[in-house]
Amino acid sequence: MTDQHVDELIDLYALGALEPGEQAAVDEHLDDCPRCRAQLEEAKQLVLMFAWTPDQHDPPPALRGKVMQRVSHLQRLQGSTQRSWWDRLALPQWLRSPQLGLQLSGALVLVAALLGWRIFGLQSEVTSLRAQIAEQETLVAVLYEPDTRIVPLAAANDPAVTHGYLLFDPERQQAVIKSTALAALPQDQTYQLWLIDGSQPESVGLLSTGPDGHGTAEVMAQRPFSQYQAFGISIEPAGGSDQPTTTPIVVVSL
Amino acid sequence: MFQRQKYVVQNQETDAALADGSLGERRRTQWGETSNVEETDEELIERLAGGDVAALDALYTRYARPVFSLALRILSDSADAEEVTQDVFERVWRHAPTFDAQRGRFGTWLLSMTHHVAIDRVRKRQRRPQQATAQSVEWTAPGPPAPNDVPESALRNMQAEQVRRALRSLPSSQQQAIELAYFGGLSHLEIAAVLGDPLGTVKARIRRGMDRLRSALERYVTEGEDV
Ligand SMILES: [Zn+2]
């Protein structure tokens, strides 16, 4: 399949009418055949037009209200999540100034704050932040989810000390942990992350931090977060352990 | 092959005209001034991304009709089509901050998403193939343009009219096979099963139908000849 052109399948491909197996074979050919790729692009252009061809009907008038109500509701939820989170972080007032919002997109402001809420008036800093953002797409994606919750990671031995934040959506299995004050560990040790359901902790990743105590890691759970009771961090030998071997330095309920 | 290439080039010119606004001028005289003409789709999305929900209301005014109509055509059920429409506009809001604004492309993106969401739903419904045959209907003439027609939707409506005519001019077996694929979400294998025709026949019909559409539209684009 890969060395033969796929002319007879291009239209079917553009229409989404190939069987899954065929589609994979065509994809393989398309990977290194610009000629067939160009034909597919052209066929897709035509297929795109089909979307505008059905007989036109107005939706019921009440639908507009439903749509707007739903989105306004979601927007409020998102707004309140962000506000409470800002407040908990006690960001300097200037960071929330409207001018800054004009200069930087919402994502940039959020990520900038997460990455260390430091100064970024300088162009060079903004540039470097952009680079970091590119590396942290997951973080940005989590931030944009309206249902994202942010849990401060209070130290187990002193609730007044916050080590960082866990950002998660209860309905998802993926989350992000951002540490702001976790001392860098010696080479032979690592921070290990746990989700706890009953008494059985489940390892959900490792975290390393820099000299400034900052670190970011993706957390991958086996089930949606709503199904766990707590999140914890323990110090383990490099590479991690099957079960925690030390007393957790953080345990927060979700 | 040559014909295919030419069609693409012409298409891009149309998009270019759309992008530099020359088509916009013509449209404005054709459809008259409306309150929404000033603000482009992309400007509205930017406002929406900035948290201004009213911008979504304006986008709804422009696009609810084609979105709902496509969903209705695919799902043949008004309540389902309403749910898809609601879902699609919620996604617009959700994706607004990351939407890659290319001028004149929002409507295309929106309708592709509608198609995707509605076909997904059809497949989940596990509709019996026989029903798909029963609801395979003639392509019908469009209704009057929506009251607040604006650049992209107006352009697409004009183009759609040509595609619609070209489709109607196809032999009904070709038209039906293409419809079952695009609006029914069926694979060529499923189409063959529904119609009781050999696989090769179905593939050939779709391909011939698409080729006919290409040449009809090419004549329209290059020579301004009505399909
Ligand atoms: Zn090829």
How would you explain this protein's 3D organization?
The complex is a heterodimer of chains A (254) and B (227). Chain A has helices at 7-14, 20-31, 34-50, 62-89, 98-103, 106-114, 123-135, 137-144, and strands at 149-155, 158-168, 174-179, 189-197, 200-207, 215-220, 230-237, 250-253. With 254 residues, chain A is of the alpha+beta class. In chain A, the strands form 2 sheets. Chain A has a 4-stranded antiparallel β-sheet, with helices on one face. In chain A, strands 5-4-7-8 form a 4-stranded antiparallel β-sheet, with no helix packed on it. Chain A is extended, with a radius of gyration of 24 Å. In chain B, helix 1 crosses helix 11 (199-223) and helix 4 crosses helix 5 (78-95). Chain B is 73% helix and 0% strand. The radius of gyration of chain B is 19 Å and the shape is globular. Chain B has 11 helices and no strands. The longest helix of chain B is centred in the last third of the chain and has 25 residues, at 199-223. Chains A and B meet through helix 1, helix 3 and helix 4 of A and helix 1, helix 4, helix 5, helix 6 and helix 8 of B. The complex binds zinc ion.
